[in-house]
Amino acid sequence: MGKFEDMEFSLIPEERYEDVIHHLRNNFFADEPLNSAVSLVQPGDPHAELEEHSLNTLKDGLSQMAVHRDTGQVIGVALNGIQGPDDLAASQAKLTTLTDEKFRQIFDLLYGANLTLDLFRQHGVDRIFECRILSVDKRFRGRGLARELLRRSEEVARENGFKVFKEDATGFFSQKVAESVGLQTVHELRYEDYTSPDTGEVIFKTKKPHESLKIMVKILQ
Prior knowledge:
- The protein is an alpha+beta fold.
- The protein has one domain: 3-Layer(aba) Sandwich (Aminopeptidase), CATH 3.40.630.
- The chain is 36% helix and 23% strand.
- It has 8 helices and 7 strands; from the N terminus they run E-H-H-H-E-E-H-H-H-E-H-E-H-E-E.
- The protein has helices at residues 17-27, 33-37, 48-58, 87-95, 101-115, 119-123, 145-159, 172-180; strands at residues 7-11, 64-68, 74-83, 128-136, 164-169, 184-190, 212-219.
- It has a 7-stranded mixed β-sheet, with helices on both faces.
- Strand 4, helix 7 and strand 5 form a beta-alpha-beta unit.
- Helix 4 (87-95) packs antiparallel against helix 5 (101-115).
- The chain is globular and about 55 Å long.
- The protein starts with 6 loop residues before the first strand and ends with a strand.
């Protein structure tokens, strides 16, 4: 049997959005290194802002899923969205309206790091294909499924005429997967260097081996 013969891959249809959110609650929201560092959410629990972020990404129609053939269960996802030149500033402004301080801290880091770059002007594009969430069911890790989802996501990006494929890789393992399909680091911020302007304390005390945020890019055309 081939490595993925017990799985089916496809774009994520609207009728599976709820199943994807269920998967993320149990396999991603609590485990992601920055979320974990600030105890944003407990395994299995819902989180309104994370789920809104996920659903908005799903609506772009570019996300990939892996489904177990026997059970029909979602066992892996790559949530891919379209980023435009003004989206970062608008998203950062929206953060000020949110009450969840931990969520604001995480996305302040992500949006702030991205705003130090100008990938749109640098590459002469008005849209970027962005892998925002890469998640695999705990029971199916170690089989190369994350890499396969990212590889298939790149195919979707190419088919839809994108020039720039990007991922904000917050953890060591997602960074290794991204490197394995040819993404290169264009910006790196070590978590130990990201401190509170008020207290000087490190904001994200991540667990090893997660040491930095890497903004990673692959040029497709």
